[in-house]
Amino acid sequence: MTKPLLKVEGLKKYFPIKGGVFGKVVGQVKAVDDVSFEVMEGEILGIVGESGCGKSTTGKTLLRLVEPTEGNIFFNDESITELSDEKMRLLRRDMQIIFQDPYASLNPRHTVEKIIGEPLLVHGMKSAQARKERVKQLLEVVGLSAYHASRYPHQFSGGQRQRIGIARALANNPKLIICDEPVSALDVSVQSQILNLMEELRDQFNLTYVFIAHDLSVVKHISDRVGVMYLGRMVELANKDALYDTPKHPYTQALLSAVPLPDPDDKQDRIILQGDVPSPANPPTGCAFHTRCPYVMDVCKAVRPEWKEVSEDHFAACHLYNDNDQSEEQQKPLMQVES
């Protein structure tokens, strides 16, 4: 059985809110609030949710680009939450990130050769000629040409810039890549090219991805398993087919009901959620989703639901599935969604 390459336990990231004349801490934004999951070697785990749900913060915290407030992160069975800066820097050879914005993530003053070659220099490739050859090789791997090495970022399109970002992430042969909405800023036609490229690279280099996005169709296309986040919490995690065909959590059901169907003659029930997303600075007690949930019960308002396996390899945090004595009717998914 494949072992977990990445294991996350009780991950929290709170940002302080300061106020008053002396700038005292008067509250906290709970961007990531007790998230746990595993990523197997060679797997693509998709993470989806509304804007502001904590997806990108989770991804950056996994690499300690943002320091976690609480929780444990294990990479290759090694806890990385307490590593020194020097050891963390060495470990980043195996853990890389592709950023969301291909315009902001590349230094406009540097050539492509310097952008891709810098990680090689940082991690010990002192020979300029060796770096030059490696950069040319990487450019060809991601579908660009060797002569592009002497150009600057402003001379490329958005899709080409994202390919440069992917080449930079691949420079030191990493094992894990965090993909922070890598195609959201690109045209649809370019999105498919980048997604297909990432799948090819996964097979070619035995990569493991955590793929963060808000586009559900993109996540279904590329992921093996999908986790759904709401207000800093993971509410559901399952194999992509199980999640899209039989969603368990009411939030997942509402999210999937909003996905347009390719055939305009096909109809599906649209779940319209009432109200706005609560503030992560003051999340609701109990289940964070209870203020918008159409199936809310009294227990939802007071008790935070337990994260548990509700069917084989299908995890959810919902009181609808926490009672073993429920009737069969209640145990069924609350709606069916056509994939």
Taking Cα atoms only, what radius of gyration do you get, to the nearest Å?
21 Å
Distance between the termini: 29 Å
What is the CATH top level name of the domain at 4-94 and 176-181 and 203-331?
A: Alpha Beta
Q: What percent strand?
A: 15-25%
- Based on helices, strands and strand pairing, what is the structural class? alpha/beta
- The order of strands across the largest sheet is 6-7-8-3-9-10-12-11
Q: Count of DSSP helices?
A: 11
- Helix and strand run: EEEHEEHEHHHEHEHEEHHHEEH
Outline the low-pLDDT stretches.
324-339
* Shape type: globular
Question: What percent of the residues sit in helical stretches (DSSP H or I)?
Answer: 25-40%
Q: Give the mean pLDDT.
A: 89
Count every beta strand, where a strand is a DSSP E run of 2 or more residues.
12
Q: CATH superfamily of the domain at 4-94 and 176-181 and 203-331, called what?
A: P-loop containing nucleotide triphosphate hydrolases
Major sheet, described briefly? 8 strands, mixed
* CATH architecture descriptor name of the domain at 4-94 and 176-181 and 203-331: 3-Layer(aba) Sandwich
CATH topology of the domain at 4-94 and 176-181 and 203-331: Rossmann fold
